[in-house]
From TrEMBL:
It comes from Jatropha curcas (Barbados nut). InterPro entries: E_motif, PPR_At4g14850-like_plant, PPR_rpt, TPR-like_helical_dom_sf. Belongs to the PPR family. PCMP-E subfamily. PPR repeats lie at residues 76-110, 138-168, 169-203, 271-305, 342-376. This is Pentacotripeptide-repeat region of PRORP domain-containing protein.
Length: 449
């Protein structure tokens, strides 16, 4: 176009080529077009300037974006909104708020940008204030706020806002279903899906992935089969990586290992998540040795395990009492992969050693932890002390738990049982008196049958 004798780039040309650089995040090329716009004398044009602000803001060149903004002789709601977006993109909430307040006029996009930026920055209180001040709201406004509440665990506020939404699309339903699933409320997620079905809203793959996550938590095989069947009859492409990975995870955790394995073997390329789903499914259903074999196969294929993968395999070793394998993986993560074991990894090892009767070694491992250990790890060791009748170590572990969880009655009950098994009835009485002094009660047992 520039070489043509009959045409020349103008203020309508540059916004398009600048946007093409933005899509690929080609900063250098965008800067070249900016220079060309300056030489052509159109850089301060309203549309060119707005495109440049948007480009530099999304490329996180916020100082350049602000320079372009300040040099513009004319600004409209698009250029102001682009500047707000730019500040939000680099996490500068203060300047984003300042520009938003200074805006001579705002449209729905401006309001949604501000709400979304505050939610992303974790400032839900101010995000809700801006949301409540909006002269009008669309489904995007509600989705952003509901997603924000769900991600911080305030599912009650998310649901209350969902019920107020005048219009609900598939994405809004997906956000709520995902919120319930991620916050450990799978049954509620399933109820929301059923409500969506009654409203004749067609689920997309994201809704189905969230639904499969909820099914995985419930562990209901019949429900998992229904979801699997529903998916096969829908128009959703189950060949998509995230969909098939969720299918494998759901079937594995619900006990349909044949179906999970079939899906796993048919995958053209297996990732870490798919491997971990299969390993965890095998572990849950008592196939610890197969889980170890699959983990080794994953390593042989060149996949690098992360923290979660090591938690999965150490848990499998614990369930199967595979002590040597567990010790090997625990050392491997430190020596080969230069990873610092987390409290979860230590807890898995303590549980493994405790189940196998190696209580002293489990205790020494707990003491050697570079970070504060979880109460769950000490609890596993105390349970093992009861099982193996270790009175002296049981006293030490119980006293540590009294410090970590002073309001929890379980350590007192376990210690009392350890004393009772050893016929130390005076000590049993002492523990019970201690519980009364602290106002603690033994939780009544219940059956899930």
């Amino acid at each position: 176009m520039k070489r043509s004798e009959h045409s020349w780039p103008d203020e309508y040309t540059y916004p398009s080529v600048i946007r093409s650089c933005l899509n690929e995040y080609k900063l250098k090329e965008g800067q070249i077009f900016h220079g060309s716009a300056i030489r052509s004398g159109v850089s301060k044009d309203l549309y060119v300037g707005s495109s440049l602000i948007d480009f530099y803001g999304k490329c996180k060149e916020i100082l350049t974006a602000r320079k372009v903004f300040d040099e513009m002789t004319e600004r409209n709601v698009v250029s102001w909104t682009a500047m707000v977006h730019g500040y939000l993109n680099v996490g500068d909430l203060d300047n984003a708020k300042r520009v938003f307040v200074q805006m001579p006029e705002r449209n729905l996009t401006s309001w949604n940008a501000m709400v979304g930026g505050l939610v992303k920055g974790g400032d839900l209180i101010n995000a809700r204030k801006v949301f409540d001040d909006m002269p009008e709201r669309d489904v995007v406004s509600f989705t952003v706020m509901i997603d924000g509440y769900a991600k911080v665990g305030d599912i009650a506020s998310a649901r209350a806002l969902f019920d107020k939404a005048p219009k609900r699309d598939a994405f809004l339903w997906s956000v709520l279903i995902s919120g319930y699933a991620q916050n450990g409320l799978p049954n509620e997620a399933l109820k929301i899906f059923q409500g969506m079905e009654l409203m004749n809203v067609k689920p997309d793959e994201y809704i189905m992935v969230s639904l499969m996550s909820a099914c995985s938590q419930v562990g209901n095989l019949d429900l998992a089969k229904w979801v699997d069947c529903y998916l096969s009859q829908s128009s959703i492409d189950i060949g998509q990586t995230h969909v098939v990975a969720a299918l494998i995870d759901m079937n594995a955790k619900c006990g349909n290992m044949d179906r999970a394995n079939k899906l796993f073997e048919e995958m053209p390329k297996r990732d870490l998540f798919s491997y971990c789903s299969m390993i965890q499914g095998l572990s849950i259903h008592g196939y610890a040795e197969q889980a170890v074999g699959l983990f080794n196969k994953m390593l042989n294929e060149g996949l690098i395990p992360d923290n979660a993968a090591f938690t999965v395999i150490l848990t499998a070793c614990s369930h199967g009492r595979l002590v040597e394998e567990g010790k090997h993986y625990f050392e491997t993560m430190k020596s080969k992969y230069s990873m610092v074991p987390s409290p979860e990894h230590y807890a898995c090892m303590v549980d493994l050693l405790s189940r196998s009767g190696q209580l002293k070694e489990a205790y020494e491992l707990l003491k050697s932890m570079p970070v504060e250990s979880h109460a769950s790890a000490w609890g596993a060791l105390l349970g093992a002390c009861k099982f193996y009748g270790e009175v002296e170590l049981g006293e030490i572990v119980a006293n540590r738990l009294f410090e970590l969880e002073p309001e929890n009655s379980s350590p007192y009950v376990l210690l009392s049982s350890i004393y009772a098994a050893a016929d130390q009835w005076l000590d049993v009485s002492h523990v019970k008196n201690k519980m009364k002094e602290r106002g603690l009660r033994k939780l009544p047992g219940c059956s899930w049958i």
